[in-house]
């Protein structure tokens, strides 16, 4: 091979590596913007035939960022995020259940602060530039290395890298989308980040730690859980029983940095029985298996084939 050809191949290879590195750096900037930028606006959440709208207010205060998320349709409900704590405000039990479902994606904080945790399971590629909420943004795509996760797309603001839209895709078909329809980076007033006084706080929930610390996770205190599928790690776990017939149980929040799964492992005095699982919608799927006197249930934002493969590869002690 001639020297000029070798040089050309080297330059092309180096350019490709630099481009990939730049893409990961861009995603890292997007993760920080999604967590920290002050803003006010409105976004829509669409899956299948359902469409919901939310208003979002974020303000920097002395103790950090405070965020108010208001459902604009259906049962009145709001979520206040202060640091790592979520507070749910509603006057209806169903409103609380809907609010808990709303937390499966706290858009636009949809990327882990440490995007390096994604490199084992995804490749990254940049896409076209478009306009969303009257702002220019560029699509970045995270494509799974194995065909048991969704492809996810993020349209990142050209100026500050905030995700203006998030898409779940499977075989080229859009499964679920979050997208701003109105957005301003002016800081809201203190009144705008306070909950509606007509609503009462019904529950509080502490968010699990960011995946940046998963490598220090101590597997010896996982209790019933022995091993997870490759690329997944435990963010938090606590005692919890879903089925009243179980004599003990544990709830694990599991992630690969992008996918989030609620994993329930329950022990029964006698061999448990399969029961019809709750129907899921959008990007959520569920699966279960029985191993001896244990029942394992997983619910998360994976395709049906992916959540079944996940449960199949979970090992208990």
* Major beta sheet, strand line-up: 6-7-8-9-10-1-2-3-4-5-11
Describe the global form.
Answer: globular
| Unreliably modeled segments | 1-19
Q: What structural category arises from helix and sheet content?
A: alpha+beta
Please tell me the overall pLDDT.
85
Assign the CATH architecture of the largest domain: Clam
What's the tally of helices? 3
* Helical coverage, percent range: 10-25%
**Topology, number of strands:** 18
**CATH homology superfamily name of the largest domain:** Lipoprotein localisation LolA/LolB/LppX
Using only C-alpha atoms, the radius of gyration works out to 21 Å
Tell me about the biggest sheet? 11 strands, antiparallel
Q: Beta-strand percentage?
A: 35-45%
**What is the H/E order?**
HEEEEEHEEEEEEEEEEEEHE
CATH fold name of the largest domain, please? outer membrane lipoprotein receptor (LolB), chain A
Number of domains: 2
Terminal CA distance reads 57 Å
CATH level 1 name of the largest domain: Mainly Beta
């Amino acid at each position: 091979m001639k020297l000029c050809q070798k040089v050309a191949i080297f330059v092309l290879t180096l350019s490709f590596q630099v481009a990939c590195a730049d893409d990961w750096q861009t995603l890292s900037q997007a993760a920080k913007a999604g967590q920290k930028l002050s803003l006010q606006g409105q976004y829509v959440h669409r899956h299948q035939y359902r469409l919901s709208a939310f208003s979002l207010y974020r303000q920097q205060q002395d103790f950090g960022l405070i965020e108010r998320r208001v459902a604009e349709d259906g049962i009145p409900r709001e979520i206040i995020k202060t640091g790592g704590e979520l507070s749910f405000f509603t006057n209806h039990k169903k409103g609380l259940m809907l609010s808990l479902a709303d937390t499966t994606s706290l858009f636009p904080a949809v990327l882990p602060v440490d995007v390096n945790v994604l490199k084992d399971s995804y490749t990254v590629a940049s896409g076209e530039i478009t306009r969303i909420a009257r702002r220019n943004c560029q699509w970045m795509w995270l494509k799974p290395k194995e065909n048991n996760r969704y492809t996810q797309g993020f349209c990142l603001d050209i100026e500050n890298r905030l995700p203006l839209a998030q898409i779940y895709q499977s075989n080229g078909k859009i499964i679920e989308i979050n997208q701003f329809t109105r957005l301003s980076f002016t800081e809201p007033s203190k009144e705008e980040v306070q909950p509606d006084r007509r609503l009462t706080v019904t529950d509080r929930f502490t968010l699990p730690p960011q995946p940046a610390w998963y490598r220090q996770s101590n597997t010896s205190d996982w209790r019933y859980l022995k091993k997870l599928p490759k690329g997944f790690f435990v963010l938090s776990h606590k005692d919890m029983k879903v089925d009243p017939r179980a004599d003990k149980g544990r709830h694990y929040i599991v992630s690969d940095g992008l996918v989030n799964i609620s994993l329930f492992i329950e022990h029964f005095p006698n061999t448990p029985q399969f029961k019809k699982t709750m129907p899921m919608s959008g990007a959520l799927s569920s699966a279960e298996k029985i191993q001896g006197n244990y029942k394992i249930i997983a619910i998360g934002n994976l395709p049906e084939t992916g959540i079944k493969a996940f449960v199949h590869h979970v090992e208990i002690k």
